[in-house]
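Progress against Task 2.4 (sequence-to-structure conversion) is shown through the following example record, which the project officer requested during the mid-term review.
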Amino acid sequence: MPAADARLAADRQALRALVAEVARFYVSDKGLRRAQQRMADLLSRGGELSDEAVRAYLAEVRRYFEGFEREARQHLGDVDRRLARVSQLQFNLTAERGVTARRVEVTQSVLARIATLDGPAEPTEPA
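Structure tokens generated for the chain above:
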């Protein structure tokens, strides 16, 4: 098999793999759906693929998935920012809880000393 034929076979195989991968996505974009169907039909016929048809397909897939990636990256950034806020809030609340728990310990210590000197205090209603 000459080098050009081997490259064409490899390109066709890579193109089939791309068409199969794109087919796994739910696509509502009409332009991409048309391009996907056209390329699937061309590949199933087994005939020659023009450079123009391949370039048009690749351009349509690139257009769609670059936008899809941009949107996904923006969403990822938003989620990361929200997670950072939640992490900071959790850190702050954990620190606040530690301070409050220490206050409970200190006040219990004082009340315990009073109880040994004066007897137990009357129970109080929580505020």
